[in-house]
Amino acid sequence: MRIHHSPFSDVEIPDVAVTPFVMRHAERLADKPAFVDGTSGRTLTYGALDDLIHRLAGGLAGEGFAKAGVLALMAPNMPEYPVVFHAVATLGGVVTTINPTYTAGEVAHQLADSGATVLVTIPQFLDVAHQAAAASGVEDIIVLGDADGGRPLAELLAAEPVFQVDVDPHSDVVVMPYSSGTTGLSKGVMLTHRNLVANVVQADAAVGLAEEDVIVAVLPFFHIYGMQVLMNGILASGGTAVTLPRFDLEQFLQSLQDHRVTRAYVVPPIVLALAKHPVVDRYDLSALDLVFSGAAPLGADLASEAKARIGAEVVQGYGLTETSPVTHATPRGQYRAGSIGIVIPNTEVRVVDPVSGEDLEVAEDGEIWIRGPQVMKGYLNNEEATAATIDPEGWLHSGDIGHVDEDGHFYIVDRLKELIKYKGFQVAPAELEALLLTHPAVADAAVIGVPDDEAGEIPKAFVVIRPECQVTGDQLMAFVAENVASFKRVRELDVVDAIPKSASGKILRRVLRDQERERAG
After folding, report:
1. How far is Cα 175 from Cα 278, in angstroms, rounded to an integer?
2. Comparing C-alpha atoms, which of 199, 151, 168, 118 is closest to residue 370?
3. Is 329 helix (H, G, I), strand (E, B) or coil?
4. For 105-159, what is each residue's pLDDT tens digit?
5. Global pTM?
6. Taking the domains of the chain in order of start, what are their residue ranges?
7. Domain 44-166 maps to which CATH number in 1.10.10.10, 3.30.9.10, 3.30.1490.110, 3.40.50.980?
8. Cα 33 from Cα 31, distance rounded (Å)
9. 226 phi and psi, to 5 degrees?
10. Could you give the CA distance from residue 123 to residue 460 in angstroms, rounded to a whole number?
11. Class of domain 420-520
12. Cα–Cα dist 501/512, whole Å
């Protein structure tokens, strides 16, 4: 067995709940901005944030919300997001974070599957919230703001503060984002207090933030990258986050300039914009000294081009929702073209031949296996999927193909799993195929990811039409768009005579991908 370790020494991981850990600087930094709303300038200091967390915990407890209860949070990035998140964590509850672009059906599935009893959202999403709640049995909707159809969060803030209840950091789940994992439909990823605390400490050792750092928080907090690397990582470091509800290039650049942002954690499409969009030249980005890209592979040429243009180091890291998320990162000054970085502390990594199960040598491509304290407890109510992802020895099989060089830098070259990564978001082909097959004109369907300069990959469908039916590709793409979140939409569609399948009936997506590569030249 060939196990790769971090060049950094192991770090001590406190055996504590996540909220007291990340808020440990609150009293000392009481007057310092923790979160600044990038659109309005509204500021939440460390002291105010700490007070609101514990008062909301008191309000929720007064409503009967208790340890192991599940609260769903569907909101864009805003200063109140960590208030709700950590109030629930303080009570020993579980937050399930929901993508606000989901359709009512998608939200209802997550509410029902997670067992959520409370849904917190913003006025703009109340229609979807009510539809989803009605379909899932959730009766309590709380709104961040003031709008008909939901109880204002402010009503719960009059309660006496409640402080951290006893939890077992190793076994008690605190957050449950949803991920498609290595295959299939979306599943609840059970992450414990220890998972989150461990990964904040591990990541800090490799790419540590400082109290002086100002970070733009445009990556969504509902996604594990934004949740941990930005929201919790910033709090744990004592830095300041500038939140943006969504990515708008000029608003993003304005925030970098106005708030003298020192670090930007982004995804490859944002690096593409920094490298190529002409509007970038209008803004002063001189305070920015590090751009850290994750969630999807970043091309070496694009990273170099962006660095040359904006004068900041552009590096990348790697992780999974199932690993809380970081497993690899590029420390400052150790950039290597195309590398996802080195193994972070307290983490073991193997490169394994997916056919033989044998460990591979340097520069040989195999599946990346990971073991460490950041690895999830498992998938909610899905022992089969958990067992398929984490083996009996604790190794998480990532589904990503890559290799390590002689200096310990890792590279991802392909995916064993079939998920599509659209702008860093996971799109499960099986979900889109199942949806297409509900259309009366569709006899068969397959979906793959095809390369795209801006998005990384886009979903492309291959569809067999029933002989007696007439339908256009545009009509089928519109049908999909009506039923899924925007990032899951089929962007290209070919009508074909047959879908390539194995003797057992499994879709041969690799055949379709090979055909696409040949067509692209």
Report:
1. 40
2. 199
3. strand
4. 999 999 999 999 999 999 999 999 999 999 998 989 999 998 888 899 999 999 9
5. 0.88
6. 44-166, 420-520
7. 3.40.50.980
8. 7
9. -65, -40
10. 34
11. alpha beta
12. 10
